[in-house]
Fold this sequence. Notes:
The protein is globular, with a radius of gyration of 29 Å. The strands form four sheets. Strands 1-2-4-3 form a four-stranded antiparallel β-sheet. It is an alpha/beta fold and about 600 residues long. The chain is built from 20 helices and 13 strands. Arginine binds near residues 119, 122, 159 and 346.
Amino acid sequence: MEKLIVEIKKEITEAFVKAGYDEKFGMVSVSNRPDLCQYQCNGAMAAAKQYKKAPIMIANEVVALLENSETFEKIEAIAPGFINITLKGEFIANYVSDMAMSPKYGVEEAKNPKTIIIDYGGPNIAKPLHVGHLRSAIIGESIKRFGKYMGHKVIGDAHLGDWGLQMGLIITECKKRNPDWVYFDDNYEGEYPKEAPFTMSELEEIYPYANAYSKEHPEYREEAQNATFLLQNGKRGYYALWEHILNVSVNDLKKNYTKLNVEFDLWKKESDAQPYIKDMVQGMKDGGYAYISEGALVVDVKEDTDKKEIPPCMILKSDGATLYNTTDLATIVERMKLFKPDAITYVVDKRQELYFEQVFRCAKKTKLVGDDTKLTFLGFGTMNGKDGKPFKTREGGVMRLETLIKNITDAVYDKVSDRDISEDEAREIARKVGVAALKYGDLSNQASKDYIFDIERFSSFEGNTGPYILYTIVRIKSILAKYTEKNGAPDADAKMLAPVKKSETDLMLALAKFNDMMENAFEENAPHKVCQYIYELSNAFAGFYHENKIIAEEDKARQSSWISLITLTKNVLETCVDLLGMEAPERM
Length: 588
Ligand code: ARG
């Protein structure tokens, strides 16, 4: 469907042209004085300069041409030259009725669907998920859903960290504790056991221990580095052990991500890029891009316009070892080969911004991607505690994601457990509402900003929170159920009548903005815009519901129009909530 604002703009533009002015002056925006009008056009002000005429004269001429329009209830020129626009109730009601009939409530799918890879989550195997991974998962999942909704081919990739020193550390520690394991017997040629020799909780203990130990003991660290090297070069026993670490970790990760409604399309890993490294490096050398600097192989990526120093991108260390960069670049090679994406978007902590700038420039310069592939860094800020410092446990440690989810779920459970519902239902409500509290608390902030994690505020059923939005949906569902109980299922095709009270007009106008908002939120990778929108929509619903007694209404046509209106409100809210990766319970 054409956006409402575009329809208005078309009509205004036509009038400007008819009155002899350039079409570019037919600009329209949402009114910044909603007490006076709904939309406004400031084009006469801009045209005044070019036509050397008083703006009010131009505005008057344009308005005169629109007085009999089917679209405008009221259109007036206001000194010094603004045009204030109020739409006809029927026009708004027709637009919103059409929306209700449209498969995506007025959103048009992309005419030329693009292939977009979203690199998000980025968990590291054998290390428990912590709150630092939370933002990437939450934001990435949401923008992935936006892209799919807009009709693009979107591939969400977890891009597991499975190939760095942490693997060597775990292997080294396992060897120290269990030197007799078959994985460490260099003469062994048989098959390795199918069953992993450790559980997830054992792994979670091993890694931090080995990491801390290696900091104090250089010889141990060296051994771990060597083990990493041997693993990367295919040493059989180490590889088999690594596969166990991978499987045990991925199972555990999937459980946690499922709790958060985060689903990856792909579970690719850093190690998958390994086979592409050799040719990539050769290509960089042959192309004359890579050169040796202080023993290391590097590619210069600085540009004349740089305001700050952008260091060269290091491809291989002096001992030939690969780095995080190398893997990310080779992953680009792999992705281009497998998917030919039009865009790759990385949802990563904003502290990695400079690093990604280097990687992107290097990928472009060395022609791993052409100019038609868009590489985007979507950097997010830190989740802080109430003290303004990065969020920690009470003991000062890093909080595990599982614990965080449990805390917020328990907070919601406490609020609903006294209701007359079964234990199972209360738990289910707490899960859905808890996840929404957590996610909305995060997504409602602009991604690049830091924010303060506040469990009380996030889980409140009032104010700009996830639970409030869900509560609005639940409330509409209950009105609809009540209506159906009395009158049977509502007429799905019932057209909406022109609104009577302002609160009804406001609700319709809020709904009508959905397609415009959605397109914008997708283009800007901005979940916070969807949050802002559903908060406004929920408030508009609250205003409408407060003023109109839907169930008691005696005028059946009016009542049926209202039922259509609140059904659409529910559908749009549910769609948005799903796009944010949340879901509403039946009751709460
Ligand atoms: N595993 C990394 C970390 O924990 C994040 C990965 C981000 N994605 C990427 N393509 N580098 O910091």
